[in-house]
Write a structure and sequence with these properties.
alpha+beta; Alpha-Beta Plaits; 4-stranded antiparallel beta sheet; single chain; 236 residues; Translation Initiation Factor IF3; 5-stranded antiparallel beta sheet; 3 domains
Length: 236
């Protein structure tokens, strides 16, 4: 029994020593794992819009509904013909509804009875095309319609033509790779300053892609941007 007691005590002691070693080693490894740096990587691209949408309003006034209807139909046809001559297909043009308001019947316009014209008609035509340069040419040429008595303007005054970039998915892999490389360069600079080396990625968080106008004067040129946030391990 005495020998059995000493053997058990010896095994217990060895077990405590081994356990202590692993616990201590675990603490050291945990501290090493806690040594990391968080950096951000940026990737930007300037790209041309590949889709343009131009919502057009044609406005007319008059006092005779039948006469006004005929004029609005004629002007709609003139505008459609103009865009066809500019090289746009029928599929790229969509006609919207015609809205006619009785100006004199507007209870919120106190001077409505003094208006020269009783009715105001607005018709809508939307031009949607992937040929952005052609649309910009048509925009310049459309001034000639004024000389034909056609009052044509954009439905959205704050954004006369909406320029869109639809090719984001083709850029994503390359831009994410570039942002990651940029983040590692920043981490390596930090590591050199702290006499360390950059190890593996600990955590990576990809930011959202944003698409904005390059500036207010060239909305047809877009700026694509993404920022990634990455935690890199630091090693001695």
């Amino acid at each position: 029994m005495k020998n059995t007691y000493w053997v058990s005590a010896l095994l217990l002691s060895i077990g405590l020593v081994v356990a202590g070693y692993f616990i201590g080693n675990l603490q050291v490894n945990a501290k090493e794992y806690d040594r990391y740096v968080t950096v951000k990587g940026l990737s930007e691209r300037e790209v041309a819009a590949d889709l343009a949408v131009w919502p057009i309003n044609i406005t007319l006034t008059g006092n005779d509904l039948e006469e006004l209807r005929g004029r609005i139909e004629a002007q709609n046809q003139t505008v459609s013909t103009f865009f066809s001559q500019q090289g746009f297909s029928a599929e790229e043009m969509t006609r919207g509804p015609v809205n006619i308001n009785d100006v004199q019947a507007n209870p919120y316009n106190s001077g409505a009875t003094n208006n020269r014209y009783r009715y105001m008609a607005k018709s809508e035509i939307t031009l949607r095309t992937t040929d952005v340069p052609k649309l910009q040419t048509a925009l310049t040429e459309s001034l000639n319609l004024l000389s034909r008595g056609i009052l044509m303007g954009s439905k959205n005054e704050w954004e006369p033509i909406e320029y869109i970039f639809t090719g984001l998915n083709t850029l994503k892999p390359e831009m994410i790779e570039e942002a990651t490389k940029n983040a590692r360069e920043v981490a390596e600079k930090f590591a050199r300053d702290s006499n360390s080396e950059v190890g593996q990625i600990r955590v990576a968080r990809q930011g959202l892609f944003s698409i904005s106008n390059r500036d207010a004067n060239t909305p047809q040129i877009k700026k694509v941007r993404v920022v990634t946030t990455i935690d890199f391990q630091l090693e001695d």
